[in-house]
Design goal:
By secondary structure, the protein is an alpha/beta fold. The protein contains 9 helices and 15 strands. It is globular.
Length: 340
């Protein structure tokens, strides 16, 4: 934490298709000074998330794009180095949005203080943060799984999917997870207690789903869209619910992907509903109470994929979009003084 310069990763060019390391550049700039009501913090952990692929593309969707030559956005855990805000003291740990850089100035109002005795600091970027709330709110408020129903989730070993499947089990559902490797399949079944895992790269989806969900599918928590959604739709039940949470199979696409047959949605009077985690802040306290409790009781397990060094963020992010990550992807930017 004693660097005298700020290291930043900036966007050099807008990726076409899969991002390349040359789309990013590491630069050094002076450490900024906090103004009135602001704090300076040093980044400990940087969260890497699929939504960042959209932010480095041109064109606004639900959030503005990152400008060329600007620092890439991202959620962080950081430690206060200087404070001009009465609610934050030097040494405090905060949930911040420093982006892909080692230091940043923030307005006090945008920060949430973290208590490292409650949970490891990095959990606030994953199971106890944005991805965890995404899992909890979209599953419980849109998916509404009932005891004995069948829930299918894609990207099932990841930050969102692993939490979705475990909460669905806690609610008494039969849970089927779709993943991209045998190691991930073993993990969701043997460690997390999913009923069945399907490897989307080696198994034929239609027959694997039929076998895994012999009574049909009541909830499909969609993290991917594409061919997985297409296959799932053929086996949905009357009144199925489909939280549409992510379309990662299309994030690197260079042309419009061919769409699934949506006819079963009509025939089955299914609800398919788009989801943005920012609409669900009102569920944050319920989420934190329930998920912290399940973590503490051992009913919910959590796996992180920690890559050391800010300079490795571009390569790790490229891998996230390919499925190389196994668990919630976090960059360890500086040593965590609270970690054992
Ligand atoms: P993650 O699952 O930890 O990592 C991404 C995973 O996506 C990869 O490990 C890979 O897993 C899978 N994947 C990559 N390419 C794929 C493809 N072509 N087809 C199918 N799967 C593919 O990421 P996460 O943070 O939990 O995010 C999961 C999804 O939730 C993303 O779509 C993200 O955009 C979405 N999300 C949405 C919101 C919202 O508010 N709407 C908020 C947070 C996250 P496998 O190789 O194992 O399949
Ligand atoms: C947000 C809304 C959506 C947000 C992230 C997302 C970081 C993620 C969307 C996606 O991954 O598709 O406010 O904050």
């Amino acid at each position: 934490m004693s660097d005298l310069i700020n290291k930043q990763i900036i966007l050099k060019s807008r990726p076409v298709g899969e991002p390349k390391e040359s789309d990013f550049a590491l630069v050094e700039t002076p450490i900024p000074e906090p103004g009135e009501g602001e704090i300076l913090s040093c980044t400990i952990y940087l969260s890497l998330d699929p939504y960042m692929r959209g932010r480095i593309s041109a064109g606004e969707s639900y959030a503005a794009s990152v400008e060329l030559d600007s620092v890439i956005v991202g959620g962080t855990v950081s430690q206060v180095i200087k404070s001009n805000h009465p609610q934050f003291q030097v040494g405090d740990f905060v949930l911040s949005n420093n982006g892909w850089q080692t230091y940043a100035v923030s307005k006090g109002e945008t920060l949430r203080k973290l208590d490292p005795t409650q949970a490891p600091l990095s959990y606030s970027l994953g199971v106890l943060g944005m991805p965890g709330l995404t899992a909890y709110a979209a599953l419980l408020d849109i998916g509404q799984p009932k005891e004995g129903e069948t829930v299918v989730v894609s990207a099932a070993s990841g930050a969102v999917g692993a939490v979705v499947g475990q909460i669905a089990k806690i609610k008494g559902a039969r849970v089927v997870g779709i993943v991209g490797s045998d190691d991930k399949r073993d993990y969701i079944v043997k460690e997390l207690g999913f009923n069945v895992g399907i490897n989307r790269k080696t198994q034929e989806l239609d027959s694997a789903l039929k076998e895994a969900a012999p009574n049909g599918i009541d909830v499909y928590y969609d993290n991917t869209a594409g061919v997985i959604l297409e296959a799932v739709l053929q086996q949905i039940n009357l009144g199925a619910r489909i939280p549409l949470v992510g379309l990662i199979s299309e994030y690197n696409a260079t042309s419009t992907p061919s769409g699934p047959n949506l006819m079963p949605l009509l025939i089955k009077r299914a609800l398919i509903k788009g989801f943005l985690v920012s609409d669900y802040q009102h569920r944050f306290n319920d989420f934190l109470r329930d998920v912290s409790g399940w973590l503490q009781s051992g009913q919910l397990k959590y796996k992180e994929d920690v890559v050391v060094g800010l300079e490795n963020a571009p390569r790790a992010f490229i891998g996230l979009l390919r499925g190389d990550n196994f668990g919630k992807l976090i960059i360890k930017v500086n040593d965590d003084p609270t970690a054992g």
